[in-house]
Design goal:
By secondary structure, the chain is of the alpha/beta class. 41% of the residues lie in helices and 19% in strands. It has 14 helices and 19 strands. The strands form four sheets. It has a nine-stranded parallel sheet with strand order 7-6-5-2-1-11-10-9-8. A six-stranded antiparallel sheet has the order 12-13-14-19-16-17, with helices on one face. The chain has a two-stranded antiparallel ribbon with strand order 3-4. The longest helix has 43 residues.
Amino acid sequence: MLQKLLQSRLIRAAVLFLLIIGSLNAALGSAAAAQSSRLDGVALGYGSHLKSGMENFSASLQAQLDSGVSWVREEIPWRLVEPKQDQFRWQFESGGVFYDFDTLLQTYHQKNLKVLLVLNGGPNYLESQWPDKPVDPEALLDRWRVFVATVAARYGNVVDAWQIGFEPNRPVQWGKTVFPAEKKASPAPDPELYTRMLMAGYTILKNIDSSDLVVLGALSTPLDGECALPAADYLSRLWAAGAWPYFDVLALDLFPGKFAPEEPWVYKAKGDCPGVPPAATITGQIEALRAFVEKAGGKPVWVTALGWRQDWLKDAARSKRSQVDLIQSDYLVRGTVALLSMPEVERVFWFSQSDNPRVSGFQLTPDSRQALANLSHYLKNARVMGQTQGQQYRKEPASEVFEYRFRSQGQTIIYIWRAEGGLEKRPVILNHLDGMKVQVFPADAVDWNTPAFELEVNSSGNALLDVNERPLVLVARPANLITLLSNRAGDFLYNLGDAARAEAAGWLKRQKRLALAHLMDWLRGVQEEILGAISQSLLRQ
């Protein structure tokens, strides 16, 4: 009896092992096939904008670490680090603010935070006079090469990506390059001169470290009353000037003003603007460039600044009977999730984690900090499954409901919310949850281990959930252990490089052959034992 019991358990263990190996093999194949939809890294972060100084750096750094982000965005303002020609400084006080770029960047490196460093502005020592006499372009280019080479030689080992300029399609920002001594200069953007700066910077940076990324100066949506060159027009002029091979990543800065993430916003431009971009949502801003970018050669997109200033949110808080803090948290989640679900978008940076005296109102509230930490937690090493079909703004069915899915560590992560209605809830049916145990959390929940409740899934894999404008995150875990282990293995393999996946595939094949060989040897032994027992029984008769 004991022998039969042991044999039965051994058979089940062998079959279980083979099932796991088979599942891993299948997961490996699907991981290789779906690699194009990968979400690169955490794909989250925010610019800390510590131009306000090093006084609160320790607290700011700890907030970044608590948020779980892997990237930060900082700026080297040219006019401050080189106040006189060839006299560079990296620790100094200016305007009552103390700067220490050595400590800043070295500390980020020690804490394993990757840095996107913006090289921006122009040198005050070059002669210019607003509005008729910008800096001489040849002199600017000569000094630009020296500036880039000097910064890269000092910080190349601690910087992972370099952004060339800051919103060069906006007159107020381009003015800092060609009229560096005039704070209110707003000249027309010059894509051709910017292209020459981009080419020079790219060549220098790649010669120092070819693995570093060069990011285009972020093209920004204009603010009301501003006359910026639309991103599509600026890109097309960059392409005509030969800029396309000289950057690795296309960047956008998105500031929707008072509008919600799903709502198209309209600009109140000046009457004499040469071009006004059409109204679009935050995702629509990227979709509008898709055809051109694909035709030009394809580039990944980073949203290097996303933000809603708190005074922009007062009307929304009042109309929705909510609070500014909660509206900011909701918009942060809704905007970031929607952007990360797009195939082009690799990373999203919130504009500023703490208040910046020069650009105030974007600092993260406590609820927003928690929401950002939760995004980092749930989406770390995740891959995009996409937006659930039929969930579109002001379209039927499920008109104002948005649902996005990701895969991480064997689980399906679902973000869902309404784009209208404030705190008023409406029932929504979720599909394709067969065999899942689904836990529901508020997107800014303070405890990842204690769900608000568990969702009831019926035999058809459907579930009913009440949803309002406050986003919910659903963690759907396979109830079957084998499925969960297989999913986790597949997600792990998905994030491996091609060489590592090939090595893993070879190992799986070897284990499968060994398992089959051992199983067959064992079965032959059992067969011989049974035949021997039968023979002995016959002889006794």
